[in-house]
Amino acid sequence: MDLFLITFAALFSVINPLGSVPIFLGLTQGDTKESQKRTALWTSVNVFIILVISFFIGKVILNFFGISIDVLRIAGGVVICSSGFGLLSGTFSKKRGVNKKVANDAQQRNDIALTPLAIPMMAGPGSMSLLIAMEQDYQEILNKLIIVTAIFAVAISVFLILRSANYISKILGASGIVAISRIIGFLVLAIGIQYIITSLLILFKI
């Protein structure tokens, strides 16, 4: 249960589906409720598939490029810190690669559930590196199943939040979403710093 909660909390904080609500509404404006629901469903499915693939195949990619797990943790920590700082400063949408040009282009396509909603907004470098590092730390089959279950729970959360995007936007308003994003941003920043410090201690054997 502890591993499940740790994985869920870390992934949910890094992915930050609540912070994606305004972008989701912007990309699906003019769509019917059924169309928005379908986009939310496929976004969550894509997020789940991408994260699971990253979790199981990430080690192969690291070995191919000759990258050590501790170096990956540092790089991932930097990316996670960058995302956290972006949430705190209100510039996270830019750091996700969703600028005005990308948003306008996405509105003309039917695959926004994959990009930019799933990639790079949610299943980005931060969440991918987090899972690759966890795969190295938890080698037992039971632990891997627990982590996959946590990924599935996060994907369900993504679906429920995006499906309720209109209601969340009305209830919280722009200021409420920003406030929650700032709190999540602080947690994300702390996660990134912890990853960097832990890896440096291992590398320098302090």
TrEMBL record:
Organism superkingdom: Bacteria
Membrane-spanning parts: 6-27, 39-65, 71-92, 112-133, 145-162, 183-204
InterPro entries xref list: Multi_antbiot-R_MarC
UniProt source species: Paenimyroides marinum
Name of this chain's protein: UPF0056 membrane protein
Taxonomic lineage from the root: Bacteria, Pseudomonadati, Bacteroidota, Flavobacteriia, Flavobacteriales
Compartments where found: Cell membrane
Membrane topology: Multi-pass membrane protein
Assigned GO CC terms: plasma membrane
One Pfam family it belongs to: MarC
Keywords: Cell membrane, Membrane, Transmembrane, Transmembrane helix
Keyword Ion transport: no
Homology family: Belongs to the UPF0056 (MarC) family.
Keyword set includes Transmembrane helix: yes
